[in-house]
Amino acid sequence: MSSKTLLLSLFGYKSWADDELLALLADVENDVTDEQLVAILETINHAHVVDRIFMSNIQKRTHGYRDTGTSSTPKLAELSEAIIETDRWYLRYVEQVEPEELAETITFSFTDGASGQMSREEMLAHVITHGAYHRGEVGRMVTQLSKPSSPDTFTGYLHQAEPARRASM
């Protein structure tokens, strides 16, 4: 399996897991307190902003963010649309990127102004792991509210996306 093939699977998984979480939140949005919903949305918004920051970094563009959050927390519907759009961008990007581009090291600025250097492949890996961490954090918040959590495992995604993987040998 090539790095690009793995990245395609991982970003397919990220998109699927984000969709599942957003659908769950739409179902429970009216069943949680405003304080609980804000905590959930701030966490998801943070992960989304970081996705957008690294989208800019990968393209060698200035991201314009001064923080890894926003001054006001978007509503769930608005945030959902933005996350879906960003996930689609990453899927298209990974489909089109050339292997030598993945290896290229790029210098960029963090939100605190400090410089950093990572390859595009490392940045993509960061987006995957960072998002998974925060989806897990939100899943924990949701289960503490006695609500079911959304599915969020790579194996679950692979077996849903490719049912033949479940076939007996």
TrEMBL record:
Keyword presence, Ligase: no
Entry keywords, A to Z: Metal-binding
InterPro entries: DinB, DinB/YfiT-like
Coiled coil: none
Gene3D superfamilies: dinb family like domain (1.20.120.450)
Name of protein: DinB family protein
Native source organism of the sequence: Mesorhizobium salmacidum
Protein family: Belongs to the DinB family.
Statement: the UniProt record of this protein carries the keyword Transmembrane: no
